[in-house]
Amino acid sequence: MESPLKGHEVPRPNTRDRIVDAADLLFYQTGFEHTSFAEIAAVVGVSRGNFYHHFKTKDEILTAVIDLRLNKTRAMLRDWQAEGQGPAERIGCFIQILITNQSKIVLHGCPVGTLVSELAKLDHAAHDHANALFTLFRDWLREQFVQLGRKEDADVLAMRLLAQSQGVASLASAFRDAEFIKAEVHQMRAWVQSLTPAA
Protein backbone atom coordinates (compact mmCIF):
# COMPACT_ATOMS: atom_id res chain seq x y z
CA MET A 1 0.00 0.00 0.00
CA GLU A 2 1.35 3.40 -0.95
CA SER A 3 2.25 5.64 1.96
CA PRO A 4 -0.23 8.52 2.44
CA LEU A 5 2.77 10.75 3.14
CA LYS A 6 4.46 10.02 -0.15
CA GLY A 7 5.14 13.23 -2.02
CA HIS A 8 4.63 15.29 1.16
CA GLU A 9 7.84 14.50 3.04
CA VAL A 10 9.52 17.52 4.59
CA PRO A 11 12.98 17.81 3.03
CA ARG A 12 15.83 17.32 5.48
CA PRO A 13 18.03 20.40 5.91
CA ASN A 14 21.30 20.18 4.04
CA THR A 15 24.68 20.48 5.76
CA ARG A 16 25.03 24.19 5.05
CA ASP A 17 21.63 24.94 6.55
CA ARG A 18 22.43 22.85 9.62
CA ILE A 19 25.67 24.78 10.10
CA VAL A 20 23.83 28.09 9.88
CA ASP A 21 21.12 26.93 12.28
CA ALA A 22 23.72 25.75 14.79
CA ALA A 23 25.71 28.96 14.48
CA ASP A 24 22.55 31.02 14.92
CA LEU A 25 21.83 29.31 18.23
CA LEU A 26 25.43 29.45 19.48
CA PHE A 27 25.86 33.12 18.53
CA TYR A 28 22.75 33.83 20.58
CA GLN A 29 23.68 31.71 23.58
CA THR A 30 27.41 32.40 23.85
CA GLY A 31 28.03 35.34 21.51
CA PHE A 32 29.63 35.64 18.08
CA GLU A 33 33.14 36.34 19.36
CA HIS A 34 33.17 33.42 21.80
CA THR A 35 31.83 30.83 19.37
CA SER A 36 34.46 28.80 17.52
CA PHE A 37 34.38 26.82 14.30
CA ALA A 38 35.01 23.69 16.35
CA GLU A 39 31.95 24.29 18.55
CA ILE A 40 29.68 24.79 15.55
CA ALA A 41 31.10 21.72 13.79
CA ALA A 42 30.62 19.64 16.95
CA VAL A 43 26.96 20.58 17.21
CA VAL A 44 26.35 19.77 13.54
CA GLY A 45 28.51 16.64 13.64
CA VAL A 46 30.58 17.35 10.55
CA SER A 47 34.28 17.05 9.88
CA ARG A 48 36.49 20.15 9.64
CA GLY A 49 36.95 19.50 5.92
CA ASN A 50 33.21 19.32 5.30
CA PHE A 51 32.74 22.44 7.38
CA TYR A 52 35.29 24.45 5.38
CA HIS A 53 33.69 23.27 2.17
CA HIS A 54 30.70 25.45 3.08
CA PHE A 55 32.30 28.31 5.04
CA LYS A 56 35.88 29.53 4.94
CA THR A 57 35.58 32.17 7.67
CA LYS A 58 33.41 32.88 10.69
CA ASP A 59 32.40 36.16 9.08
CA GLU A 60 30.85 34.18 6.21
CA ILE A 61 28.82 32.24 8.76
CA LEU A 62 27.80 35.49 10.46
CA THR A 63 26.49 36.86 7.17
CA ALA A 64 24.49 33.68 6.62
CA VAL A 65 23.09 33.83 10.17
CA ILE A 66 21.99 37.45 9.75
CA ASP A 67 20.38 36.60 6.40
CA LEU A 68 18.56 33.70 8.07
CA ARG A 69 17.27 35.98 10.81
CA LEU A 70 16.20 38.62 8.29
CA ASN A 71 14.26 36.02 6.29
CA LYS A 72 12.59 34.65 9.43
CA THR A 73 11.70 38.16 10.58
CA ARG A 74 10.16 39.08 7.21
CA ALA A 75 8.09 35.87 7.30
CA MET A 76 6.96 36.61 10.86
CA LEU A 77 5.93 40.16 9.94
CA ARG A 78 3.96 38.83 6.97
CA ASP A 79 2.17 36.41 9.29
CA TRP A 80 1.32 39.18 11.75
CA GLN A 81 0.06 41.33 8.90
CA ALA A 82 -2.20 38.53 7.70
CA GLU A 83 -3.43 37.40 11.11
CA GLY A 84 -3.99 40.71 12.90
CA GLN A 85 -7.51 42.17 12.78
CA GLY A 86 -6.24 45.74 12.94
CA PRO A 87 -3.10 47.77 13.69
CA ALA A 88 -3.49 47.59 17.47
CA GLU A 89 -3.78 43.81 17.35
CA ARG A 90 -0.81 43.57 14.99
CA ILE A 91 1.29 45.73 17.32
CA GLY A 92 0.19 43.35 20.05
CA CYS A 93 1.80 40.51 18.08
CA PHE A 94 5.12 42.33 18.34
CA ILE A 95 4.69 42.81 22.10
CA GLN A 96 3.67 39.16 22.54
CA ILE A 97 7.07 37.87 21.38
CA LEU A 98 8.43 38.92 24.78
CA ILE A 99 6.04 36.38 26.35
CA THR A 100 6.53 33.73 23.67
CA ASN A 101 10.31 33.85 24.09
CA GLN A 102 10.46 34.81 27.77
CA SER A 103 12.41 31.75 28.96
CA LYS A 104 15.10 32.36 26.32
CA ILE A 105 15.11 36.11 26.98
CA VAL A 106 15.62 35.58 30.71
CA LEU A 107 18.67 33.42 29.97
CA HIS A 108 20.21 35.22 27.01
CA GLY A 109 18.45 38.54 26.35
CA CYS A 110 17.01 39.57 22.98
CA PRO A 111 18.66 37.77 20.05
CA VAL A 112 18.58 40.91 17.91
CA GLY A 113 19.73 43.31 20.60
CA THR A 114 22.54 41.12 21.87
CA LEU A 115 23.98 40.52 18.39
CA VAL A 116 23.76 44.15 17.26
CA SER A 117 25.29 45.33 20.54
CA GLU A 118 28.15 42.83 20.34
CA LEU A 119 28.97 43.72 16.74
CA ALA A 120 28.91 47.43 17.63
CA LYS A 121 31.41 46.83 20.45
CA LEU A 122 33.62 44.87 18.09
CA ASP A 123 33.24 47.62 15.45
CA HIS A 124 32.48 44.72 13.12
CA ALA A 125 31.79 45.36 9.44
CA ALA A 126 28.55 43.34 9.69
CA HIS A 127 27.03 45.69 12.27
CA ASP A 128 24.90 47.58 9.73
CA HIS A 129 23.75 44.30 8.20
CA ALA A 130 22.62 43.04 11.62
CA ASN A 131 21.00 46.38 12.44
CA ALA A 132 18.72 45.82 9.44
CA LEU A 133 16.79 43.51 11.78
CA PHE A 134 15.87 46.48 13.96
CA THR A 135 15.06 48.49 10.84
CA LEU A 136 12.58 45.83 9.71
CA PHE A 137 10.75 46.06 13.03
CA ARG A 138 10.94 49.86 13.10
CA ASP A 139 9.50 50.25 9.59
CA TRP A 140 6.76 47.70 10.23
CA LEU A 141 5.76 49.23 13.57
CA ARG A 142 5.77 52.72 12.07
CA GLU A 143 3.29 51.57 9.42
CA GLN A 144 1.05 50.07 12.11
CA PHE A 145 1.02 53.35 14.04
CA VAL A 146 0.21 55.21 10.81
CA GLN A 147 -2.77 52.90 10.32
CA LEU A 148 -3.69 53.54 13.95
CA GLY A 149 -4.13 57.22 13.04
CA ARG A 150 -0.80 58.46 14.40
CA LYS A 151 0.87 59.48 11.15
CA GLU A 152 2.62 62.54 12.60
CA ASP A 153 4.46 60.68 15.36
CA ALA A 154 4.38 57.12 14.01
CA ASP A 155 8.17 56.77 13.88
CA VAL A 156 8.58 58.20 17.38
CA LEU A 157 6.05 55.70 18.71
CA ALA A 158 7.70 52.84 16.83
CA MET A 159 11.09 53.71 18.31
CA ARG A 160 9.57 54.07 21.79
CA LEU A 161 8.09 50.59 21.61
CA LEU A 162 11.32 49.13 20.26
CA ALA A 163 13.28 50.83 23.04
CA GLN A 164 10.89 49.58 25.70
CA SER A 165 10.98 46.00 24.43
CA GLN A 166 14.80 46.08 24.39
CA GLY A 167 14.90 47.50 27.88
CA VAL A 168 12.53 44.83 29.16
CA ALA A 169 14.61 42.07 27.56
CA SER A 170 17.85 43.48 28.96
CA LEU A 171 16.59 43.89 32.53
CA ALA A 172 14.69 40.59 32.55
CA SER A 173 17.94 38.87 31.59
CA ALA A 174 19.98 40.85 34.12
CA PHE A 175 17.63 39.98 36.98
CA ARG A 176 16.52 36.58 35.64
CA ASP A 177 12.94 37.77 36.11
CA ALA A 178 10.18 36.36 33.90
CA GLU A 179 7.49 38.06 35.99
CA PHE A 180 8.96 41.43 35.09
CA ILE A 181 8.39 40.60 31.42
CA LYS A 182 4.73 39.75 32.07
CA ALA A 183 4.13 42.98 33.98
CA GLU A 184 5.80 45.13 31.33
CA VAL A 185 3.94 43.42 28.50
CA HIS A 186 0.69 44.27 30.30
CA GLN A 187 1.77 47.91 30.51
CA MET A 188 2.78 48.03 26.84
CA ARG A 189 -0.55 46.58 25.76
CA ALA A 190 -2.39 49.17 27.85
CA TRP A 191 -0.26 51.92 26.31
CA VAL A 192 -1.11 50.79 22.76
CA GLN A 193 -4.78 50.59 23.70
CA SER A 194 -4.64 54.16 24.98
CA LEU A 195 -3.51 55.28 21.53
CA THR A 196 -6.38 53.70 19.64
CA PRO A 197 -9.14 56.02 18.36
CA ALA A 198 -11.78 54.21 20.43
CA ALA A 199 -9.81 54.71 23.66
From TrEMBL:
Alphabetized UniProt keyword annotations: DNA-binding, Transcription, Transcription regulation
Entry-linked PROSITE patterns: HTH_TETR_2
Source organism: Parasedimentitalea maritima
UniProt protein name: TetR/AcrR family transcriptional regulator
Gene3D superfamilies listed in its UniProt record: Tetracycline Repressor, domain 2 (1.10.357.10)
UniProt KW Repressor keyword: no
DNA-binding region(s) from the entry: 36-55
Classification via InterPro entries: Homeodomain-like_sf, HTH_TetR, Tet_transcr_reg_TetR-rel_C_sf, YxaF_TetR_C
Domain HTH tetR-type: from-to ranges: 13-73
The keyword Lyase appears for this protein: no
Pfam families recorded: TetR_C_13_2 (PF21993), TetR_N (PF00440)
PANTHER family: HTH-TYPE TRANSCRIPTIONAL REGULATOR YJDC (PTHR47506:SF1), TRANSCRIPTIONAL REGULATORY PROTEIN (PTHR47506)
